[in-house]
Design brief:
5-stranded antiparallel sheet; about 0% helix
Length: about 170
């Protein structure tokens, strides 16, 4: 039941933090139901008028696995998640069901940045719900690790004896 994991992002759930740059025309709103049933998911919206239809973290990381939980607010559509819109492996089909998407960025513009949501190239969506962004140390998708102000490296979790569905760092 012991496991190690990493998350190189400093704020993996607080997308209102200033480490996440919001482009002109993009906004974030908190308080939406996350995949675990809490209210920690964010809605990322693009109003269609700004020149920066994205939100990103200047993670300065080019070769490790990136992931985020995402879903549409309504309907279905495509959007670039985890990487800049120039990376073809970052375009994902979303529905109203939560799914964890992951990719290792390829070469191209903005490859070092973690683009949480990039609306460029998406003709269907102007808002998505996101939760639990992660950059794993390595090329394999690992279990999600929360960060709140600092990256976590080789964290060890054990099952919580009083709440079986939760872990303890």
């Amino acid at each position: 039941n012991w496991s190690k994991g990493s998350n190189s992002l400093t704020f993996s759930e607080d997308f209102s933090n200033t480490v996440w740059t919001k482009g002109d025309g993009t906004s974030v709103t908190n308080g939406f139901t996350d995949p675990l049933g809490g209210n920690t998911a964010y809605k990322v919206s693009y109003n269609g008028t700004g020149t920066g239809p994205y939100i990103f973290d200047d993670a300065n990381n080019t070769s490790n696995m990136r992931s985020v939980w995402a879903r549409t607010v309504s309907g279905t559509g495509q959007i670039h998640l985890t990487s800049h819109s120039s990376n073809s492996n970052s375009l994902f089909n979303l529905t109203t069901e939560w799914q964890r998407v992951s990719a290792i960025p390829t070469s191209g513009a903005g490859v070092a940045n973690f683009y949480l949501a990039d609306f460029r190239g998406s003709t269907d969506l102007t808002e998505v719900l996101v939760w639990g962004a992660q950059i794993d140390d390595g090329t394999t998708l690992g279990a999600y690790r929360l960060t709140d102000g600092g990256a976590t490296s080789n964290s060890t979790v054990i099952p919580n004896p009083t709440i079986p569905t939760k872990d303890i760092f």
